[in-house]
Write a structure and sequence with these properties.
Blueprint (H helix, E strand, L loop, with lengths): L4 H27 L4 H42 L1
């Protein structure tokens, strides 16, 4: 696997967008009438949070792999 920092940048950008979406959904919840609209907003919130968790997990796994590989290379050189 090659290390491409664009991958992390893309994940961080997605995380920032998801956090903005959550803020917007929270504002919409405050202004909602209840009932079906509240259910729709709740489903949107779950979807955005699921995507955010997935993005955090992917970023974390990628960084861990990258750091372990770099550490192995450094230890191999010494």
């Amino acid at each position: 696997m090659t290390f491409d920092d664009r991958l992390l940048i893309r994940h961080y950008r997605q995380q920032a967008q998801a956090e903005k979406q959550l803020s917007q959904i929270s504002a919409d919840v405050d202004n909602s009438e209840g009932g079906e609209e509240a259910q729709r907003l709740f489903e949107q919130m779950i979807e955005v949070k699921s995507n955010l968790v997935s993005s955090f997990a992917t970023s974390s796994g990628y960084l861990s792999y990258k750091h372990d590989t770099i550490k192995a290379v450094i230890n191999g050189i010494q």
